[in-house]
Design goal:
Strand content of chain A: 25-35%
CATH topology of the largest domain in chain A: Rossmann fold
Helix content of chain A: 10-25%
Oligomer: heterodimer
CATH topology of chain B: TIM Barrel
Number of helices of chain A: 6
Shape of chain A: globular
Bound molecules: flavin-adenine dinucleotide, flavin mononucleotide, FE2/S2 (inorganic) cluster
CATH class of the largest domain in chain A: Alpha Beta
Largest interface: A-B, 40 and 42 residues
Number of helices of chain B: 10
Helix content of chain B: 25-40%
Order of helices and strands of chain A: EEEEEEEHEEHEHEEHEHEEEHE
Distance between the termini of chain B: 5 Å
Number of domains of chain B: 1
Distance between the termini of chain A: 30 Å
Chain lengths: ~270, ~300
């Protein structure tokens, strides 16, 4: 279903800390329910600008973490403070205005017959896997999740999914090492799988290479710098195997791993 | 109702070339886009003779109140545009202006001829922010160079010809005069200002570029004051209509462009912040005009 035309102003209904992250919730009376893997362009309605380097100016892309309830659905987003835009959004409190455009882009597609879903995420890459796990479980499938984080504080984000197995870089919680260690063990367990992954470029590239080597299909939710989110600026391109580019905002953010020769570093 | 190059338009707000892909936007927003179409004419992105992939990423850099882009004019090429995009663009509820660019007079002539054949296209905009392959200088940076090219190609189309000037020149009004003398029916400005985005991040090396294409072009509110100065300088020196753009974000800004002498106002970067910005600016301008009476149209 298409997104409403133009940005719309929502009111923040909740803002909570989950470890190192902020989860924002905003009822969305005008919007359709998003599909798992889709994203929204967000901007604070007040004081968007005037932060570090006098930014932000453009809206920022965020995967929808969850859409709960109906009449109206409440959209949830999971944020990590990495710069002026995420910092400003992270300051929002209930009652503040939030501009949103979306849902945008192409999300995940269901596993083929006889394949089990494996969810693999890192950091804020947890977000789209939460709504996707909900959908898979609701359709009666299994959806085990493997999540990697920097440290214990970040690993609290794993609580946003059900029964996630955790790896941390510093070993403070769960497996000490990259989440791909957990993925290899699962992939080599035998049952044919399809991997759904989202996370930093290095992790996604490792997932892509592991899956390619084992001929396991994978759907990767990528990130790139975006100005518009709806195909207008041609700024968000990612190089594909055939030497051309796709716009991540309209052809992604979820791409079949097969399309890519590698996950670009930024 | 502005009259522009023989077109009777519903209102003065159009899009800046390369800042709105209606085909992609329709996929995202459906028929609501068409029903409340923001622009009174639609300007295509720049089309070249051969397809172009565009520049390697990163292509975007955010600045204080602005954006530096180094997109590199990706497009399907003339044939791809005519065969695949034109049918859908022709079905829009507003006239279509096709923007073209070539690096030699022969290339531009071929583009103008191809466009001239198509009734679906109401007017042509010629992007002259393109280096001449012989001299390396932007065709639109030098009045004599531009005049020579326009004199060679102007008769290849009977459609209205808008010359999209480059702001990266010593005296844009002089270039605009040359465009008028060589048969332009209108001029549009400003295109993006040449700009450099320094590498950022933990591994950044001072002096290195952030953008994959090296340098880029600055747009958005950061350039509005420059745009107003250039539009007004040009409007005072030519008798043909002027399309003003650069950082327009509101009806008040659009009124300022009209006040500087523009007949139409284009919205570019602001559409990235809100896909329906053009419609809002159109409505704000209408209210503004009704109140002040000064731009009643
Ligand atoms: C489809 C999609 C979904 C996403 N989902 C989420 C999510 O669920 N949660 C989440 O936290 N994040 C998500 N992101 C990432 C989020 O959009 C970015 O973290 C955010 O845009 C950063 O903005 P900022 O102002 O905080 O940081 P910025 O300062 O913009 O820095 C972010 C990165 O951009 C680059 N950068 C730095 N300065 C500039 C500049 N001036 N211009 C351009 N680039 C610059 C650098 O590489 C830097 O590391 C998603 C991104 C995409 C594309
Ligand atoms: C991402 C981007 C792509 C653009 N592509 C083109 C183009 O293909 N052809 C062209 O003539 N101008 C192009 N422009 C320039 C705009 O049409 C406009 O002249 C400029 O951005 C100033 O207006 P603004 O500040 O409202 O964006 C582009 C601008 C941007 C930001
Ligand atoms: S973000 Fe503008 S085209 Fe994708």
């Amino acid at each position: 279903m298409s997104a409403p035309f133009g940005r719309r102003r929502l009111t923040i209904g909740g803002a909570r800390r989950v470890g190192a992250y902020v989860v924002l919730a905003a009822p969305d009376p005008g919007g359709p329910a998003p599909e798992p893997g889709q994203f929204y362009m967000l901007a604070a309605a007040e004081r968007w600008g005037g932060g570090e380097d006098e930014r932000p100016f453009l809206p920022r892309a965020f995967s929808v973490l969850r859409a709960t309830g109906t009449d109206p659905p409440t959209l949830e987003f999971m944020l990590e403070d990495v710069g002026p835009g995420t910092r400003r959004l992270g300051e929002l409190v209930p009652g503040d205005g939030l501009w949103v455009t979306g849902p945008l882009g192409q999300g995940f597609t269901a596993p083929g017959e006889g394949r089990r879903a494996l969810l693999c995420g890192g950091g804020v890459g947890t977000a789209p896997l939460a709504i996707w796990q909900d959908a898979l479980l609701a359709s009666g499938r299994e959806a085990p999740a493997l999540l990697g984080f920097r440290d214990g504080e970040h690993a609290e984000g794993a609580g946003l999914l059900r029964d996630a197995r955790v790896a941390t870089d510093d070993g403070s919680t769960g497996h000490h090492g990259p989440v791909t260690d957990l993925l290899v063990a699962e992939l080599d367990a035998g049952t044919p799988a399809i991997v759904y992954a989202c996370g930093p470029p290095g992790m996604l590239e490792a997932v892509r290479a592991l899956c390619e080597a084992r001929a396991v299909p994978a759907q990767l939710a990528l990130e790139s710098g975006m100005a518009c989110g709806f195909g207008a600026c041609f700024g968000c391109v990612v190089p594909t195997r055939d030497g051309s580019y796709v716009r991540l905002c309209v052809d992604g953010p979820v791409l079949d791993a097969e399309l890519l020769a590698g996950v670009p570093a930024h | 109702m502005p009259s522009f190059c023989g077109l009777e338009l519903e209102h003065p707000i159009v899009n800046g070339s390369g800042t709105y892909d209606v085909i992609a936007a329709r996929r995202a927003f459906g028929e609501a886009l068409i029903e409340s179409f923001p622009f009174s004419a639609f300007v295509s992105k720049t089309i070249t003779l051969e397809p172009r992939a565009g520049n390697p990423p990163p292509r975007l850099f955010e600045t204080p109140a602005g954006l530096i882009n180094s997109i590199g004019l990706p497009n399907k090429g003339l044939q791809g545009y005519l065969e695949r995009d034109l049918p859908e663009l022709a079905a829009l509820p507003v006239p279509l202006i096709t923007n073209v660019m070539g690096s030699t007079a022969a290339e531009i002539a071929a583009l103008l001829e191809a466009v001239d054949d198509r009734d679906e296209i109401a007017a042509v905009e010629l992007n002259v922010s393109c280096p001449n392959v012989r001299t390396g200088l932007d065709i639109g940076a030098d009045p004599r160079e531009l005049a020579a090219v326009l004199d060679a190609v102007r008769r290849r189309t009977s459609k209205p010809l808008i010359v999209k000037l480059t702001p990266n020149t010593a005296d844009v009004a002089l270039v605009a005069e040359a465009a008028e003398a060589s048969g332009a029916d209108a001029v549009s400005l400003i295109n993006t200002l040449r700009a450099f985005a320094p590498a950022v991040g933990p591994d950044a090396v001072a002096g290195e570029a952030w953008l994959g294409g090296g340098t880029g072009g600055l747009s958005g509110p950061a350039i509005r004051a420059v745009a107003l100065a250039q539009v007004s300088a040009v409007a005072r020196r030519v008798t043909i209509p002027v399309v003003g753009m650069g950082g327009v974000q509101s009806g008040a800004h659009a009124a300022q462009m009209l006040g500087a002498g523009a007949t139409l106002v284009a919205v570019g970067t602001e559409s990235f912040r809100d896909p329906a910005a053009g419609a809002r600016i159109r409505d704000e301008l209408r209210d503004f005009s009704a109140k002040s009476g000064s731009f009643a149209r």
